[in-house]
Specification:
The complex is a heterodimer.
Chain A: H1 3-15, H2 20-33, E1 47-49, E2 54-61, E3 66-72, H3 75-88, H4 93-98, H5 102-106, H6 121-135
Antiparallel strand pairs in A: 1-2, 2-3
Helix pairs in contact in A: 1-3, 2-3
Chain B: H1 10-15, E1 23-24, E2 27-28, E3 30-31, H2 42-55, H3 65-85, E4 93-96, H4 99-109, E5 119-123, H5 132-141, E6 144-148, H6 158-164, E7 169-175, H7 187-196, E8 200-204, H8 216-219, E9 223-227, E10 238-242, H9 244-249, E11 260-262, E12 269-270, H10 284-298, H11 302-321, E13 326-329, E14 338-343, H12 348-357, E15 360-361, E16 363-365, H13 370-376, E17 381-385, H14 392-409
Classes of the chains: A alpha+beta, B alpha/beta.
The structure holds pyridoxal-5'-phosphate.
Pyridoxal-5'-phosphate (PLP) is lined by residues 98-100, 127, 129-130, 175, 179, 204, 206-207, 227, 368 of chain B.
């Protein structure tokens, strides 16, 4: 599946919810299912400090594709991270760096990426793309 | 409730606040973020519109008709505010951009009078805006900052405060009411004790003047600062009240138009109070409409407001305590209508996001009081702060929504 197809899949999954609380129920479930990253990886250099919640991001590269694992102290942030990891994992640095991540807007979660929300997500995406750029 | 206090007609009051009557995410808006900023009554909104539709001109400068009208209104506004806080003279009411601006003015100008070794006292429950300007001053002038600790209920440890006081103490800057904990501090006692060693006192009134009648002469503080937007007035305007002898002694803050008596390249002399501290074109509409907000507030019985808000506080706290895992942060004996809390096993950001989607506006996070969060060893709180237009019915909806949110998160 291409990165764009993964995005479309998420958009389709969210299309069935017309109630905001149902949408968030699903995001919270995703957050709960996302494997925790190992505590040994929760180091300060992997920490993205937001004003409201904190995010840890670990990046791996196998010479071809990128792998991310991430965690947050807030479960909704974690649920959104789960979606990002799903879209970006096993993708080439070039694909990641050039992606527009339109799914976030399409499923109505763009408010979480505004700098004023400061939950660390906007910086996390920036960091993911920067890490990818370094490998292009 | 005390029978002699008239009951507030909340339904009638709510009609005056247009923003309260709307839906967010398809749910009726419940606005519990009054500590951050208050909604505006129609009279204030209309006054802003009227000013810009009819009276707009620069003040203190023009000979023409409009300029005179604007100047008169601006100076009249100063008098209305003077009377509302019972300042001795209107020249002691300085218009600022807000609380932060007022504190920075004092930290700079009063700070110029301080020297190495002088001490400034603040408290652990201060807003960042009543911490950072003093830290900057201490760095500039070599002064020392002392911080009054709090107890587990969120009350100042007055014995430690007293032990800090000496002839080195030059200023005590404390909040009247904590924005995070709701604690009402014993200001008169703080002022008396500080004055006994010759120190001046600045009161951060950002959270107090909308909840209680403030009489600056009765408090006897040297400075009192607040923001217009938290007292149902416009943003971008606030007030610094100061005692005349202290203000006279202080050098100006910013240089520019209006604050001068005469400018030459050899020597500039400064204007009198209040203009000495009001350089440049001010927020004219802001000042005028802040007075409108005071007129509105003065038309309502403050005792009735207080009684209603205390009712809301008691009700919200007792309802919250019945929810498993809720821990109230800030349980002072003397509190205003602010409830800060965390729910065991949940993050404030998650709770706030889910409440938002149910139409309820609360604040989450550290509330610009990071050191306080460190003391309580929490990342932040969820804070519901009530104004007199809030109701018990809204608290019921909030409690139901909170339970639903917690169920989803756990
Ligand atoms: C206690 C306290 N002090 C100062 C401030 C700063 O006020 P402003 O941002 O209006 O300058 C606030 C506002 O949140 C406050 O609650």
């Amino acid at each position: 599946m291409t990165l764009q197809e993964k995005e479309q899949e998420i958009i389709d999954e969210f299309a069935i919810y017309d109630d905001w609380m149902d949408k968030y129920e699903y995001i919270i479930e995703l957050g709960k299912e996302l494997p925790l990253i190992d505590d040994s990886l929760k180091t300060d250099n992997r920490l993205i400090e937001g004003c409201q919640s904190r995010v840890w991001l670990n990046t791996d590269f196998d010479g071809e594709n990128m792998q991310f694992s991430a965690d947050s102290d807030a479960i909704i942030t974690k649920g959104i991270i789960a979606l990002l990891v799903r879209v970006f994992n096993n993708e080439s640095p070039k694909n990641i760096a050039s992606s527009s991540l339109r799914f976030i807007e399409e499923i109505g979660l763009h408010e979480h990426l505004s700098p004023t929300r400061s939950n660390g997500l906007a910086s996390m995406i920036r960091t993911m793309k920067m890490e990818a750029l370094k490998k292009v | 409730m005390n029978e002699t206090i008239a009951k507030l007609d909340v339904a009638q009051i709510r009609l005056e606040f247009p923003t309260l009557h709307q839906e967010v995410y398809g749910k009726p808006l419940i606005y519990f973020d009054n500590g951050a900023t208050a909604q505006k009554p129609k009279s204030v909104i209309d006054a802003i519109s009227k000013y810009y539709s009819k009276d707009n001109a620069n003040i203190h400068r023009g000979v023409h008709h409009l300029s005179q009208i604007a100047t008169e209104q601006y100076e009249e506004a100063r008098k209305i505010i003077q009377k509302s806080i019972n300042a001795p003279a209107s020249e002691q009411v300085l218009f600022t951009k807000g609380t932060t601006d007022g504190i920075n003015l004092v930290a700079f100008s009063f700070g110029q009078l301080l020297k190495e070794g002088d001490e400034i006292i603040i408290s652990e429950m201060e807003h960042h805006s009543n911490i950072v300007p003093w830290q900057m001053l201490c760095e500039r002038q070599g002064c020392t900052l002392k911080v009054i600790p709090i107890n587990e209920k969120g009350e100042l440890k007055m014995d430690v405060f007293e032990s800090f006081l000496s002839n080195k103490t030059k200023l005590v800057a404390v909040t009247h009411i904590s924005n995070t904990l709701g604690t009402i501090n014993p200001i008169k006692s703080i002022v008396d004790k500080a004055h006994a060693v010759g120190a001046k006192v600045l009161i951060d009134g950002a959270q107090s003047i909308q909840h209680a009648k403030v009489d600056v002469q009765d408090l006897d503080c040297d400075f009192f600062v607040f923001s217009g937007h938290k007292v149902f007035g416009p943003t971008g305007v606030g007030v610094l009240y100061g005692k005349k002898e202290v203000l006279d002694e202080m050098p100006p803050y910013q240089g520019g138009g209006d604050m001068i008596a005469k400018v030459t390249f050899e020597k500039t002399t400064y204007n009198e109070l209040p203009h000495k501290f009001e350089a440049g074109t001010p927020n004219i509409a802001g000042g005028i409409c802040l007075a409108t907000a005071f007129e509105y507030l003065n038309s309502i019985d403050m005792d009735a407001i207080h009684a209603h808000e205390q009712d809301l506080l008691t009700y919200a706290e007792s309802e919250l305590k019945q929810i498993d895992g809720v821990r109230l942060i800030g349980t002072a004996d003397n509190k205003t209508s602010v409830v800060s809390f965390i729910v065991e096993g949940t993050h404030p950001f998650d709770v706030g996001t889910l409440l938002d989607k149910q139409g309820i506006a609360v604040r989450t996070g550290h509330h610009c009081t990071q050191p306080l969060m460190d003391i309580f060893k929490i990342p932040g709180t969820v804070r519901a702060s009530f104004a007199f237009y809030n109701t018990k019915e809204e608290i019921d909806v909030f409690i139901t929504a909170l339970k639903r949110s917690v169920n989803m998160l756990l």
